[in-house]
C-alpha cells in the first residue's frame, strides 16, 4: 500500500478532524502517501483530491467540523458513480481508503472494496446510532453540548418555576437524549426506544411541583416528535408555564471533547494498521473499551442498541 | 435606613445573583438589615420575604438565574396591589428597596417611592433595551453565549457549505444581534432598527459563494421575524441549502461573564449608597464607564439606542 | 436497611455531587432515610451528620466539589477512631454507608464493615489511579480541563514558536497525562509508567522545528518531576524558548462532564442496590462499560494500570 | 494609499486575529492591497511578508493567538534595523502600516512614521497597561479565563476549607487582578497600585473563618510578588491550609470573548480609516466607549491608570 485516501461523508461531527489527523500521521509514519478527498463521494467522483502533508493536519485536533468537508451523494449508490470514483483513484494511484461517517457512507466503501480498493469505515456521527461500537466519534461532544445547554436552561427554569421541553438530536436513536437526560438531571426522558404517556408525564410534573420542585425539564429525542407538538399535548393536562427549546445544529459543532479526540485518534491509527494488513470492507468500533472491527455486511444486518439502563436509573433519580 | 429589601422582577438574567450579593453585602457593611423578597412584586404582595445573612449570598456570584426567583405581576399596576405590598413592607419594617429587572419593573418601584418607600432600579435583562445605560446586567453573558453558538454552527456550516439563519433574543432591540453578529463574523445582521431587503441578502450570499466563501451566517433579531419565516423568504431567491436555528432560552442562562459580574457588583453597591443618601425613584446606569442615575420618569419618556455603528462596520468586514 | 449514610473522603473530584445525589435519590426511592456525613471520617467521628431531603441534592448534579466537604483523617486508621465513628452511627441509627473517595478512604470503609456496618466504596478521584475500574469519577472532567488549557497554551506557543512543558496532576499515575496528551496533540508525553530520556526529547523537538513545526508541547505527569526541573534539564540540550506551566488545583474543580455525571449516577444507584442486598466491604467499578464490584481487600493487593497504548499511539501521531 | 502592511508585535493576545481580519477586510473594501508581515519587526526586517486575500482572514475571528506570529526584536530600536525594514517596505510597495501590540511596539511604529511611512498602533495585550484606552484587545478574554479558573478553584477550596493564593498576569499593572478579583468574589486582591499588609490579610482570613466562611481566595497580581512567596509570608501568621496556583500562560490563549472581538473589529476598521486620512504616529484607544486616537509621543509620556474603585468596592463585598 503506497497511497491512501481519506474522506468524510454524511453529517459532520466533532472529532472528524482528529480522526483525519490520526489517519494521516499514522500512514505517514509508515511512509505511505496520504490524499485528502473533499466533499466525500461527490469529491471522489469529481476528483477533488489533494496530497496531504504533515502540516495539513497540524492544529486541527481541537477543531470542530471537517477540513475535508462533507456532502451527501446518493448517486454513488449507482455503479456508474462508483466507476467514476474508481477512475479517480486510478488517476491518483490511491490503493485504499478510510471513510469517516455514518453507516450510510459504509455502503459506498463496501462497493469500492468489492472493486479491489480496500476501504475501512470509521463511525463519525453525533447520533451514536451505528452498530458494533459503543460510541461514535462526536457523540461525547454533542452530549456535553446538550448538557451545558440544559444547565443554562435550568437557571432560567428555576428562576420562573417553568417546565422546559428540550428537543435534542439523534435521528432514530435516543442515545443523546438518554445520556444528556441523566447528566442534565432531567425529570423526564422521552426516546423512540420506550413507550411514553403524555398524561403520565403531566401527572409526574404535577407531583414534582406539589413536592416543591422549582422547575421541570423534559428531554425529548427528535425521533419521537417535535418539541412544540409535545408541549401542546402536555398543555392539555394542565398549565405548566411550559416552554420548548430546539437545540438544533449547535449540537453538531464545537471543539471535540477529550473522549472524542482520543477515540478518533485510536480509531484513525487502527484503520491504517488494518489497511496495512490488507483488510477492507470493514468498519471499526470501540466495544468494551477495545478496538474492534466487523464486516460492513454484518453492520447492515444489525441494529444499534441504546443503553436503556440510563432510562430506568433516571426514573429513580429524578423523582 | 435600617432595613432594605431586594427583589428581582421580569425575565431573569445572568448577573442578577451578583447584583443581589453586592446589594446585600454593601448594605450589611453599613449595618443595614437585608430582606430578600421572592418572586418580585408577587412575592412582595404575598409577603414571601426573608431575612438574608452574609452566607445567603455566598458562592452565588458565579451562578446564573436568580436565587430570589422572578415573576411577572401586572396586578401591581393597580393601587390595590401596591397597598398590599406596602402593608408587607410595614410588617417587616423595610424602609427602602432595590429592584433588579427590566424597565417594566421600574413602574412599581416608582409607585412605592411615591408612597414613601425609596426604591432604586438596577437594569437586569439580557436584551440591553433600557435607556440611560450603555449596558444592562446579563447582556454581555448572553452575547457570549450566542457567539459560542455561532462558532459551533460555523463548524457545521463550513463542512457542508450551508447558509444558517440564527435567531437571537432581544425583544424589540437589536443589541444582541448587532454585538453577536460582529463578534461571530456574521455575513448579514438583520435588526429592527434597520431596513432590510431579503432579495438583496440573497444576492449578497450568492456573491459570497461565487467568491468561494464556504458558509454564510445570517444573525436575525427576534424582533424582526421568526427564523423560519426569514428562511422561507430567502429560498424564493435561490437554494442556499439554508438551515434555521432558534437559540432560545439558552441565552438567558449560564454563569455570568466577568463583565456582567463586575457591572452587577458596581451597580449593586452604588444602589445602596444612593438609598443611604435618601434617594429613590431612580434607576442606575453605566454610561461611558461611569455609574450614573436618572429619574425613572425620565426613563419612561426616552428610548434606548442600539450601537448601529456595529451594523455599518459589519457591512465592510463580512463582505 | 432503614438508614444509610453518605460521605466524601480524600481529595475532592468533579462528579462527587452527582454521586451523592444518585445515592440519596435511589435510597429515598426505596423509602430508606439518608444521612449526610460532613468532612468524611473526621465528621463521622465528630457526629457532623444531618438528615438529607430530596431537595438537599437538588441542582447539585452540575456542581463541582462536594456539598458534604471532604477531609483527610488518618486517626481513623486507629480502632479508637473507628469506635467513636460507630458510636455516632448507632446514635443516628445508620445501618450502612457509601464512601466516595480514593482507595485510601476504602480502608476505613472496610473497618466499618468488619464492625457490622456495611460500607460500599465509590471511586471518586481525578487521578484515575484505583484498581478494578477503568474510570474514576472526576477523571473525565479533569482531562477535559487539561485539554482546554493545552488548547489555550497552543495559541500562544504557536504565536511565539515556543516549547511548553505542561505539568498535570495524577499523583503516581500517568492517566491524566496520557489522555490529555493524546487529546491535546502533545508532542511528548512523560509519565511515571515509561522511561524517558531528556536528551532524546530535546532531539525530537529539534527535529520537529527543523520540519517547520511552530510549537512543541510536552505534557508531564507530576509523578515524574516538577515542570521547572524538567525544563531546566531540557535547556541543557538547546534553547527552545521553553516555558513551563503547572495547571494545579484548577484540575480538581469545574462542572462535571457528561461522562462523569453519568458514571457517578450509575455507580451511586448501584451502591444502594448492593447495600440493599446486604453487601459490604466492596468497591464499585466500571469495567468494559459494565458496573462491577470487588472486595476492598482485593483492591489493596492490586495495582491500577494506565492505558499505555495511548503512549505508543502518540509516538506516531505527534511526530 | 495603495498597499498597507499589518503586523503583530510583543506578547500575543486573544483578539489579535479579529483585529487582523478587521484591518484586512476594511482595507480591501477600499480597494487597498493588504500585506501580512510575520513575526513583527523581525519579519519586517527579514522581508517575511506576503499578500493577504479575503480568505486569508476567513474563520480566524474566533481563534486565539495571531496568524501573523509575534516576536520581540530590540534591534529595531537602532536606525540600522529601521532602515532595513524600510527597504522591505519599498520592495513590497507598502505605503502604511498597522501595528498590533503593546506600547513597546509603538516606538518602532513612530520611527517608521518619521521616515514617511504612516503607522497606526492598536493596543493588543492582555495586561490592559496602555494609556489612553480603557481596554486593550485581549484583556476581557484574559479576565474571563482567570474568573473561570477561580470558579474551579473555589469548588475545591470550599470542599476542603482551604485558602488559595491565585497569581495572575498583568506585568506591572493590577487590572487583571482587580477585575478578576471582583468577578471571582475574591476575599483579598493584592495589586502593585495599592499598599498591603500580609498580617492584616491573615487577620481578615481568620475573621472570615470565624464567621464560618468555608474558603478564602486571594488574587495576587504577578507584579507584586510570586504566589509561593506570598503564601510563605502568610503562613507566618497562622495555618490556613493554604495553596498557591500560578495560572500562567493559559491566560494568553483561548477563543476571544465577544467584547474583545467587537473591540478589535472596531479598532481595526478605524485604523484603516485614519491611515486613509493620511494620519500616522498615532495609537488608537477606546475611551468612554468612543474610538479615539492620540500621538504616540503622548502615550510615552503618560501612564495607564487601573480602575481602583474595584479595589474599594471589593473591600465591602468580600467581607
Automatic annotation (TrEMBL), chains A, B, C, D:
<dbReference type="Pfam" id="PF00365">
    <property type="entry name" value="PFK"/>
</dbReference>
<feature type="domain" description="Phosphofructokinase">
    <location>
        <begin position="3"/>
        <end position="275"/>
    </location>
</feature>
<dbReference type="GO" id="GO:0061621">
    <property type="term" value="P:canonical glycolysis"/>
</dbReference>
<dbReference type="GO" id="GO:0005524">
    <property type="term" value="F:ATP binding"/>
</dbReference>
<feature type="active site" description="Proton acceptor">
    <location>
        <position position="127"/>
    </location>
</feature>
<feature type="binding site" description="in other chain">
    <location>
        <position position="211"/>
    </location>
    <ligand>
        <name>ADP</name>
    </ligand>
</feature>
<dbReference type="InterPro" id="IPR000023">
    <property type="entry name" value="Phosphofructokinase_dom"/>
</dbReference>
<dbReference type="GO" id="GO:0042802">
    <property type="term" value="F:identical protein binding"/>
</dbReference>
<dbReference type="InterPro" id="IPR015912">
    <property type="entry name" value="Phosphofructokinase_CS"/>
</dbReference>
<keyword id="KW-0963">Cytoplasm</keyword>
<protein>
    <recommendedName>
        <fullName>ATP-dependent 6-phosphofructokinase</fullName>
        <ecNumber>2.7.1.11</ecNumber>
    </recommendedName>
</protein>
<keyword id="KW-0067">ATP-binding</keyword>
<feature type="binding site" description="in other chain">
    <location>
        <position position="154"/>
    </location>
    <ligand>
        <name>ADP</name>
    </ligand>
</feature>
<dbReference type="GO" id="GO:0016208">
    <property type="term" value="F:AMP binding"/>
</dbReference>
<dbReference type="InterPro" id="IPR035966">
    <property type="entry name" value="PKF_sf"/>
</dbReference>
<comment type="function">
    <text>Catalyzes the phosphorylation of D-fructose 6-phosphate to fructose 1,6-bisphosphate by ATP, the first committing step of glycolysis.</text>
</comment>
<keyword id="KW-0418">Kinase</keyword>
<feature type="binding site">
    <location>
        <begin position="72"/>
        <end position="73"/>
    </location>
    <ligand>
        <name>ATP</name>
    </ligand>
</feature>
<dbReference type="GO" id="GO:0030388">
    <property type="term" value="P:fructose 1,6-bisphosphate metabolic process"/>
</dbReference>
<feature type="binding site">
    <location>
        <position position="103"/>
    </location>
    <ligand>
        <name>Mg(2+)</name>
    </ligand>
</feature>
<dbReference type="GO" id="GO:0006002">
    <property type="term" value="P:fructose 6-phosphate metabolic process"/>
</dbReference>
<dbReference type="InterPro" id="IPR022953">
    <property type="entry name" value="ATP_PFK"/>
</dbReference>
<feature type="binding site">
    <location>
        <position position="243"/>
    </location>
    <ligand>
        <name>substrate</name>
    </ligand>
</feature>
<dbReference type="InterPro" id="IPR012828">
    <property type="entry name" value="PFKA_ATP_prok"/>
</dbReference>
<feature type="binding site" description="in other chain">
    <location>
        <begin position="249"/>
        <end position="252"/>
    </location>
    <ligand>
        <name>substrate</name>
    </ligand>
</feature>
<feature type="binding site">
    <location>
        <position position="11"/>
    </location>
    <ligand>
        <name>ATP</name>
    </ligand>
</feature>
<comment type="subunit">
    <text>Homotetramer.</text>
</comment>
<feature type="binding site">
    <location>
        <position position="162"/>
    </location>
    <ligand>
        <name>substrate</name>
    </ligand>
</feature>
<feature type="binding site" description="in other chain">
    <location>
        <begin position="185"/>
        <end position="187"/>
    </location>
    <ligand>
        <name>ADP</name>
    </ligand>
</feature>
<feature type="binding site">
    <location>
        <begin position="102"/>
        <end position="105"/>
    </location>
    <ligand>
        <name>ATP</name>
    </ligand>
</feature>
<dbReference type="GO" id="GO:0048029">
    <property type="term" value="F:monosaccharide binding"/>
</dbReference>
<comment type="similarity">
    <text>Belongs to the phosphofructokinase type A (PFKA) family. ATP-dependent PFK group I subfamily. Prokaryotic clade 'B1' sub-subfamily.</text>
</comment>
<feature type="binding site" description="in other chain">
    <location>
        <begin position="125"/>
        <end position="127"/>
    </location>
    <ligand>
        <name>substrate</name>
    </ligand>
</feature>
<keyword id="KW-0479">Metal-binding</keyword>
<dbReference type="GO" id="GO:0070095">
    <property type="term" value="F:fructose-6-phosphate binding"/>
</dbReference>
<dbReference type="GO" id="GO:0046872">
    <property type="term" value="F:metal ion binding"/>
</dbReference>
<feature type="binding site" description="in other chain">
    <location>
        <begin position="169"/>
        <end position="171"/>
    </location>
    <ligand>
        <name>substrate</name>
    </ligand>
</feature>
<dbReference type="InterPro" id="IPR012003">
    <property type="entry name" value="ATP_PFK_prok-type"/>
</dbReference>
<feature type="binding site">
    <location>
        <begin position="21"/>
        <end position="25"/>
    </location>
    <ligand>
        <name>ADP</name>
    </ligand>
</feature>
<keyword id="KW-0324">Glycolysis</keyword>
<dbReference type="GO" id="GO:0005945">
    <property type="term" value="C:6-phosphofructokinase complex"/>
</dbReference>
<keyword id="KW-0021">Allosteric enzyme</keyword>
